[in-house]
Amino acid sequence: MNAKVHELLNAQINKEFYSAYLYLEISNYFDERGLDGFANWYMVQAQEERDHAMLFFTYLQNNSQKITLDAIAKPDVKIEADMDALQASLKHELYVTSLINDIYAAAYEVKDFRTMQFLDWFVKEQGEEEKNANDLITKLEMFGSDPKSLYMLDQELGTRVYAAPSLVL
Ligand code: FEO
């Protein structure tokens, strides 16, 4: 495997675990707020991020590439209101999309078609992640200021259930 592609794939393990950590922080914020549905939504999100990390981990293992695990940084988010958490997650997903695109570009440059095919799932997934983050912001803008509506939105978010990723390596 090309050295740069390898380095970026290895770094992405850490980025995805960091994402899980960030969403755990947000989930805990909502738990403390008493918004159990939001807390559940972000807990499921954290579980998905852990899966993403493990997909990069397994992909490197399957290709006999060395894995170097690094420290996971403290979640870099300051939440003073519900919307801060939602905006932070959208900003983070846009960043992750840029990281996936960077790996894809590096793989493309060296004609690493296998890695490009592996990353195709993540390209699509990032589209969904951005849409989910945007949709939540829209809903909170519409319903966040009315307690009854916020309660109903919280109920809706409480129905999200974890599902294993559709990509299996
Ligand atoms: Fe693993 Fe939310 O991107």
Strand content: under 5%
Question: Helical element count?
Answer: 5
Number of strands: 0
Cα shape: elongated
The CATH class designation is Mainly Alpha
Largest sheet: none
CATH topology: Ferritin
Distance between the termini: 18 Å
Q: In sequence order, what are the helices and strands, one letter per element?
A: HHHHH
Q: Would you tell me the overall average pLDDT?
A: 97
Category by helix and strand content: mainly alpha
Number of domains: 1
Name the CATH superfamily assignment: Ferritin, core subunit, four-helix bundle
What Rg do the Cα atoms give? 17 Å
Provide the list of bound ligands, each named once.
MU-OXO-diiron
CATH architecture heading:
Up-down Bundle
Poorly predicted residue ranges = none
* Proportion of residues in helical segments: over 70%
Features of the shown structure:
binds MU-OXO-diiron; 169 residues; 5 helices; mainly alpha
Describe the structure in brief.
The chain has one domain: Ferritin, core subunit, four-helix bundle (Ferritin, Up-down Bundle). Helices cover 76% and strands 0% of the residues.
Describe the structure.
By secondary structure, this protein is mostly helical. It has one domain (3-68, 78-157): Ferritin, core subunit, four-helix bundle (Ferritin). Helix content is 76%, strand content 0%. The chain contains five helices and no strands. Helix 1 (3-33) packs antiparallel against helix 2, helix 1 (3-33) runs antiparallel to helix 3 and helix 3 runs antiparallel to helix 4 (113-143). It is elongated, with a radius of gyration of 17 Å. The model has no long low-confidence stretch (mean pLDDT 97). MU-OXO-diiron binds next to helix 1, helix 2 and helix 3.
